[in-house]
Design brief:
Blueprint (H helix, E strand, L loop, with lengths): L1 E5 L4 H12 L3 E6 L6 H11 L4 E4 L5 H10 L4 E4 L6 H6 L1 H21 L4 E7 L23 H19 L4 E7 L1 E3 L18 H10 L5 E4 L11 E2 L1 E3 H14 L4 E7 L5 E2 H12 L5 E4 L14 H7 L7 H14 L6
Parallel strand pairs: 1-2, 1-4, 2-3, 4-5, 5-6, 6-11, 7-10, 8-13
Antiparallel strand pairs: 9-12
Amino acid sequence: MNVLVTGGAGYIGSHTVLCLLEKGFKVTVIDNLCNSSFEALNRVETISGQLVDRHYMDITDENSLKALFLSSTFDAVIHFAGLKAVGESVRKPFEYYHNNVYGTLCLLRQMKIHNVCRLIFSSSATVYGLEAQTPYLEAMPRGITSNPYGASKSIAERILEDFCTAHPKMRVSLLRYFNPVGAHPSGLIGEDPLGVPNNLMPYIAQVAIGRRKRLSVFGGDYPTLDGTCRRDYLHVMDLAEGHVKALEKLKTPGCSIYNLGTGNPLSVLEIIHAFELETGITIPYEIASRRDGDLAEFWADPTKANTDLRWFAKRSVGQMMSDTWRWQENNPKGYV
């Protein structure tokens, strides 16, 4: 099976490409490298001993997409390509809707023309919205999103559901992520955000390596046990393996939704302390003001993925911390 992976040089994409190769899939990657590096794929090739067909390409460039679909035959698509920073999406809403919504439309058009009927979509827990009760269940309706990033994912999900209704041969899985962290245990590939990290773990790792002075914890007065936000953190390798499980399950036409999370939320302070315990490194931090749009807590109910996909988040919090640190210590400046 030949799988097209959009955004396959990114953090989650590169780990998923590795899992696909190790499962015997042939992989073609397209990426515009706006927040990624082909060095990640070089290292995937080193780990796997296999080559990755790669193309520098923007998902919104439909002429280039058309040429690719004409030159290759794909059995399925895993669609990661998308902008993902919540704060940036508030400042640049047009870019987020253009890339995340229009880019998905461009991809679907070529899939329809070339009769590619299997798609795994990289979605987000943000689609549950501000009013959703925890834990999040797939049967809940999409809610009111608090930023353009979340809205773009919600719109793309609706487009994919409508596309499946209009084209009965389509088989789509919407994978709603929670908070992926960690890295491949080799320390060769990991999370390498450009500029100031938007996510907690890479910021902690950069403080630990000395690239940043201290961590700002946004909000210490939430209605949680220690006053800081609680999130559902899962190891990126568990998440990557979830994509392979979902792909192997794509046998029935229609649109399915799965939460990929552990179901066990941790607070910001618990994550800091877990990292310190695992590495022996003290992380200086300060409590800062809350950020607009942050929820006090949310986490997944992963029962459906456990049952239908036979997928489980197996790796421990300690593994998340040690693998993060191994990646950062071996690559103090990321892929540079």
